[in-house]
Amino acid sequence: MLDLGFAPQLQVLTQQCRPDRQTLMFSATFPAPVQVMGEALLHEGYKTIRITKLPNEQLSASKNIEQIVSVCEHADKHGILAEYLEELYDGYGAAADDDGSDTGSPPPAAPGPEPKVLVFCKSRFGVDGLTQKLRFAGWPAKRMHGGMRQEDREATLLEFRSGTVRDMQCSRLAFNVR
């Protein structure tokens, strides 16, 4: 929440709390600018606990993941995503005619391991809508969000990890997978 611009609101909230409050912060990545903002909300002598493979490992996003943010008009976002998927997967899968039907021709040689795409949506309704639009356009998209049963989320995640599913749309709350 700190890196999303909520630091002023969090400061107001903490000023209204008892002085002996306990503050806990959790982050998969904890970049230096966010740490500085977080320190303003903590008492002196706070403790940092890291759960990592190596003792001095820096918390950062994986080097194997390309993160793309595209700022666009609301009406254009599905088209931009479809264009990105077309470009990304060019050379993978069966060749198709303009109408999306399989031509029976062998696909061109793929440039490497098949990429996977994980799209985050603001809500589970957005996830459902985007997944439906992608499927209608011929993409074998899957969905995952907090409104699904735990077993269904775990099955979808397993399919994504194994490569059976290469496109997955999810909400931020989808990753309560045990």
Provide structural commentary:
With 178 residues, this protein is an alpha/beta fold. The chain has 2 domains: 60 residues, no CATH class; 101 residues, 3-Layer(aba) Sandwich (Rossmann fold), CATH 3.40.50. Helices cover 31% and strands 8% of the residues. The protein is built from 5 helices and 3 strands, in the order αααβαβαβ. The longest helix has 13 residues. The radius of gyration is 21 Å and the shape is elongated. The C terminus is likely disordered.
What's the SSE blueprint?
Elements lengths: L6 H9 L16 H8 L37 H12 L28 E5 L2 H13 L4 E4 L5 H13 L4 E5 L7
Parallel strand pairs: 1-3, 2-3
Alpha-carbon distance between the two ends: 23 Å
Share of helix among residues?
Answer: 25-40%
Number of strands: 3
* CATH domain class of the largest domain: Alpha Beta
Classify the fold: give the CATH topology of the largest domain. Answer: Rossmann fold
Counting structural domains, the number is: 2
Give a quick summary of the entry:
This protein is of the alpha/beta class. It contains five helices and three strands. It has helices at residues 7-15, 32-39, 77-88, 124-136, 150-162, and strands at residues 117-121, 141-144, 167-171.
